[in-house]
Amino acid sequence: NEKTPTQTDSLENRRAKIIQQAQEYYYQKPMNLVRGWQQYLIADDGRVYLDAINNVALIGHSHPKIVEAAVQQLKKLNTNARFLYEDNIDYAERLLAYFPESLQVIFYTCTGSEANDLALRLARAYTNENDVLVIDGEYHGNTTAVDEISTCLMDNPTASKSVRPFTHPLMQPNTFRGKYNSETPDVATLYAQDADEKIAFIQSQGRGVAAFISESLLGSGGGVEMPKGYLQKVYESVHKAGGVCIADEVQIGFGRMGSHFWGFQKEGVLPDIVTLGKPMGNGHPVSAVITTHAIAEAYRKKYTYFNTFAGSPVSSQIASTVLTVIESEKLQENAAAVGAFLKQELEKLIYEFESVGAVYGHALYLGVDLVKDKKSRTPDSQKALWVSETMKQNGIIIYPTGDYYNILKIKPPMCFTKENARFLVETLRTILSKMED
Ligand code: PMP
Predict the structure, then answer these.
(1) Is 225 in the pocket of ligand 1 (CB under 6 A)?
(2) Which of 64, 186, 319, 342 is the most interior residue, by most CB within 10 Å?
(3) How far is the CA of 46 from the centre of ligand 1 (A)?
């Protein structure tokens, strides 16, 4: 029987036969991972890799406290969202203490895409409008509704051609690559004007704004920090037009910003809806939408919401343990200290290599923009792929992102140490030297 896997068939061949090719994976010659531990991944040949990419495993792979929480709860009770149990109430109370006073209602979901999908429904129900402002090049998930508002070319190569009439991408406020750079006076205002123009256009068509959705540090864009004050200006314009602001914290939330628990706090804005995912369960699929009583109420008057697995007792115990460990192991403080050190060391490479154009990001969410040469700033995806493959051969996992696939993204588990950071930068330095020779 051709379908029966044989001992001699490689894992890659078995995978290629049955798992849809649209579901891509990292690396041309992937390693077969069999174990994760803290900030390390271990392959079947015994090789240990430093994991500099898994922000999902926020508190580290295979954390014993997570294992214990899951096992104990699985032994006791795991059921669906329509029953009353304490676990998801306890967790919600605990999580909401991390939010401002206005954001005190939670909807449980299972993935970042579901959270953003529901956030759009909430915004549309509340405003009775449909149009959405997004930041160009950003990704918000894989459901039909969020795909329609995602313009990240890496995840959807035809995105710029298929933008829906109700989706309005704002020029990405990237001061290295964008229309206005860091030397332009009042760069935040110039970029924010784009939002005013798009809002005016929507209104000129007799429609209104439902929402503006964005990350507070552009994760899909490679960790780009927006010019100071930009987000505040856009939020102000959107609110004035009657729209709501959605902060997508799926990638960057839960302490990774070091200085702040949430990205939106770092930018000094107050969203109406916040979406959470990836690291919330350290790899276990649990996510959430946090909003105001008024928005939740407007939605309830029109719809109900049911999501079988969302906020189950096991998910709640795991998510709660993630918070316990962030607090007890001081991982937010570690993200601030190690992240600042790592960024400072990476920035030295800008002066050492023609191929390093810029270093983006904050704390433990960083990006290294690789270019053909400094003058042209032409993005160089070939270099980024080669560097990533060679880093892997040297025991470090990082990978390219961004519309041009030329930005090395670095977003490790938050237990990453200064020693790990030194090793990463030294290895990258050696590889860049070899490449430029
Ligand atoms: N929002 C952002 C910013 C993301 O990066 C992602 C996933 N990469 C999502 C939402 C979707 O999350 P999920 O894959 O869990 O559905």
Answers:
(1) no
(2) 319
(3) 31
Using the 3D structure, point to which of 277, 305, 328 is the last residue of a domain.
328
Q: Do 159 and 123 sit in the same domain of this protein?
A: yes
Contacts 24+ apart (CB under 8 A), 142-150: 142/113, 143/113, 143/114, 143/116, 143/117, 145/117, 145/120, 145/121, 146/113, 146/116, 146/117, 146/120, 149/120, 149/213
Q: Which atom of ligand 1 is nearest to the CA of 111?
A: 15
Structure tokens at 134: 């997004």
Among 156-160, 162-166, 210-214, name the one with the lowest average pLDDT: 156-160
Any atom of ligand 1 within 6 Å of the Cβ of 216 = no
* Rounded Cα gap, residues 24 and 258, in angstroms: 31
Q: Considering 265, 299, 328, which residue would you say is the last residue of a domain?
A: 328
User: For ligand 1, what atom is nearest to the CA of residue 142?
Assistant: 16
In DSSP terms, 48 is beta-bridged to 42
DSSP class of residue 171 equals P
Q: pTM score, two decimals?
A: 0.96
Distance from the alpha carbon of residue 208 to the mean position of ligand 1, in angstroms: 27
* Token code pair at residue 202: 């929507």
Q: What are phi and psi of 88, to 5 degrees?
A: -80, -15
Instruction: Answer whether residue 283 is part of any domain.
Output: yes
Taking the C-alpha atoms of residue 334 and residue 371, their distance in angstroms, rounded to an integer, is 31
- ipTM of this complex prediction, to 2 decimal places: 0.99
Give the pair of three-digit tokens for residue 20.
């849809």
Ligand 1 centre and the CA of 276: distance in Å?
9
